[in-house]
Design brief:
By secondary structure, this protein is of the alpha+beta class. Helix content is 48%, strand content 14%. The chain crosses the membrane at residues 41-65.
Length: 71
């Protein structure tokens, strides 16, 4: 039962407009790396308050640049 409650709290945080800065979601209390966008039909986005978001973005960019250099 606790997991369902926690998921409800996380969903509530991602729906709170105070956590959205334009298209960017920033909430240090939310431990998720990827969160659904305010309108879930639009997909997912990074939680830019998480340090792992920047690491993930840097790795993705390095993979793209590295694949272009090697090919």
């Amino acid at each position: 039962m606790k997991k369902k409650l926690d998921q409800h709290i996380l969903d509530t945080m991602s729906k709170d407009l105070a956590n959205w800065h334009g298209p960017f979601y920033c909430n240090r209390k939310d431990s998720r790396l990827m969160v659904p966008k305010y309108d879930p039909m639009l997909g997912w986005t990074f939680n830019f308050a998480s340090p792992y978001a920047f690491i993930t973005i840097i790795v993705i960019v390095l993979l793209i640049v590295g694949s272009q250099i090697l090919l």
